[in-house]
Amino acid sequence: DGGITQSPKYLFRKEGQNVTLSCEQNLNHDAMYWYRQDPGQGLRLIYYSQIVNDFQKGDIAEGYSVSREKKESFPLTVTSAQKNPTAFYLCASSIMGQSNQPQHFGDGTRLSIL
Amino acid sequence: AQSVTQLDSQVPVFEEAPVELRCNYSSSVSVYLFWYVQYPNQGLQLLLKYLSGSTLVKGINGFEAEFNKSQTSFHLRKPSVHISDTAEYFCAVSPLMTGGFKTIFGAGTRLFVKA
Q1: Chain B neighbours among A 18-47 (CB < 8 Å)?
Q2: How far is CA A68 from CA A5, A8, A57, B108, in A?
């Protein structure tokens, strides 16, 4: 079955460390997204990508970086500049250019600080 | 700009009782409307969507929602809930002609079904 795979499910970061969250999809979607979810705040967009080798900042991009070298993959790096990284991170994808299409989500990565 | 307000952060309800989860939105342009469900430690799954046409939309798991343009609302309902409906529910709007990159999610409503 097609879907989105996020790994790891749980991740711990030490002070000053960069960590990378993996997101892979086999839905053949062009558009991919990273969201941050905090309790009571819904989802906030970190970055999105419409095509390979192109990505755009979302509402809360500071302290994060992404790459899109392959259509199927959209990894997110949480850098040491992100001072409050503890959150649930969700990757999503959708058919590009169609705002009437829903987003498909992975099962998330929960990041905590050691 | 768009905004989404889910009027209740938590809704406790007894099993087999009806439930309504409220969603209001604000937008200067026309939008598509979605409801998603999130079970613990999982991603979001689409429940239903309103694109156009009939204002009453039926989704999975017996849920339905009604679009009210004059009140800019999109409330989610189920006539009889089950324990398995315990989850968090998110309302979302996506402005037309923006390619989905401007989707705004509400803060979520946690539905707790009691036996």
Answers
A1: 31, 33, 40-43, 45
A2: 16, 19, 13, 30
